[in-house]
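USER:
I would value a second opinion on how I read folds in token form. Give me a protein, with the fold worked out from its sequence. Write it directly below this note and I will take it from there.

ASSISTANT:
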Amino acid sequence: MENRALIIGASGIVGSNLADQLLSTGWTVAGLSRGRTALSPAIEPITADLTSATSVNEALAGKSFTHVFFTAWARQATERENIRVNGGMVSNVLDAVGSSGTVSHAALVTGLKHYLGPFEAYATGAVPITPFREEQGRQAVENFYYEQEDRLFDAARRYGFSWSVHRPHTIIGYAIGNAMNMGVTLAVYATLCKQTGQPFVFPGSEAQWNSLTDMTDARLLARHLEWAATSVNARNEDFNVVNGDVFRWKWLWSEIAGYFGIEAAPFDGEVRPLETRMQNAGKEWSDISARFNLKETDIGKLASWWHTDADLGRPMEVLTDMTKSRKAGFLDYQSTPDAFFALFDRLKAERIIPQ
């Protein structure tokens, strides 16, 4: 049977890049979602309410897949609700497709909150020593990532397929309307600063400004997902996945400013969250988009201030170890500055930000 993938979240920052990667290597790809965002014509759209087992069963009836990729989650008001809803989504899909007997592998994308804890209890526990390693295990807090993993493991045992878990750091990649997209958010922020004369101020913490850190290009993550889905060495394993380089924001902030032709404001050690500083950004962006004939006038579909604030406001070093993937055979590397600049170039080409 040919490789036939079902991607949950095929229009998102991870899912869309994964779809591109799989299509480029000859896979057949279907995307399962609520149908709110149009997919590439090369992807078979499947519409369902992922929180409803009945809806998912009806949508997937008679369909068969060799691989399932979970690349999306539904943000809820509390972590307990995140656990209930997102854990249920994993079970609903795997129960619907597992009984077909054709699934050979299922992959789950989570993230470094596996080590840091969820937003409600962010880094309040005994955060492991950096760089984070897979063997450091789980935090003693409620976390919907753990629930998703447990549902994945249970389904794999019952239906006889292999699994992999992928933990990226902050993801850089092209996606519009994504709730967790630092790259596009920073491009919008830098554009606002350039066009309105506001200072390009680093919004985060002194720890993030000075510490070593890393990030994950969505294209590299897509290759990692495909590798794990087809490699014997990756079966039934959890993996961190980052670009392979390290940097300090005190250096990269000026590099990003230079790309946009602006000056980086001196950092004075104070946290200045974007979510509170960008109160007038909607009107300013509307004016900028009209002036430059940009495609998207609604800044809410481009900038996720809260998520960028959460990442850049962390009060500790966040650094990831990739040894496990390297030893298993995944040797890809991506320069983080190049990842940002490639994204910015595409945003210009797509008329999302001005040339």
User: Anything to note?
Assistant: Residues 79-98 form the longest helix (20 residues). The first strand starts at residue 4 and ends at 8.
